[in-house]
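Box S1 | Example of a co-folding query
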Amino acid sequence: MNLKRYRVGKKLKLKDISTDDTDKLDRDEIEAETAEIGEQLTSLQERLYAEGKQSLLLILQARDAGGKDGTVKHVFEPINPQGVVITSFKVPTETDLKHDFLWRVHPHAPAAGMMAVFNRSHYEDVLVTRVHGLIDDETAKTRFKHIRHFEELLASRGTRVLKVYLHISPEEQRQRLQDRLDDPSKHWKFNPGDLKERALWDDYTRAYQDALTATSTDEAPWYVVPADHKWYRNRVISELLLETLQDMNPQYPKSEYDLTNMAVGEL
Ligand code: ATP
Ligand code: MG
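Box S1 (continued) | Returned holo structure for adenosine-5'-triphosphate
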């Protein structure tokens, strides 16, 4: 699969990017491929952990009902949970707001050997804040610069940073939010506030376009992943992780002991 076509460059017009691309493949084929990729991810994650030098950070951003939770649930299912730390960033607390916007984020960057997922992230500070007029354009620009430097810092320490925007259509969002209303077992997921944010669809589109183009760098590229079909979304993100881990090429370390003449005796 050619993943480059989803990578964000200097220009981005979300309206022109398909939300329901499936690479002309059907669901069964795609799901079989995702399962195969999952097996490879399992073994690469073990190597990453054993090597203990590099780390991987996946940043997930999306509109409400965009599928961040589902992505974490399905894409990371084959991976040993001991090797992955997932952090969800909610509305900042009073203490958070007494610091710079990266203060609450940095402690959750992955340690050597680990994988980390940000379910929402420091990007909220240039998205929701901007859409609601809590920051002006000048501040947003300054924050883009701080974000680029922050991610460069992570990269220089051996962290690969991958950023994914889950791209859904307004119709798909309508359907998913309506499902949460119609199905009592999904009521807990329904937040009336989501309807207010939905009404600001175009403002979010502009904010996303701006933020993604300003911060898609070689060290920390953004990918816009078609996400109307959950099975296709899972396939693309699994492969993104796979290609990245293959490129990182983690190695099992040599034992610090001379094991050649060692054996485990009977008791
Ligand atoms: P779900 O898709 O399950 O609803 P969620 O990520 O939307 O998950 P919520 O608790 O519903 O989780 O929402 C978190 C809220 O916190 C979002 O509305 C998000 O915009 C907001 N938020 C996160 N970070 C910031 C920030 N830095 N500034 C302002 N709001 C933020
Ligand atoms: Mg929500």
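Strands lie at 55-62, 84-88, 115-119, 159-167, 222-226. DSSP finds nine helices and five strands in the chain.
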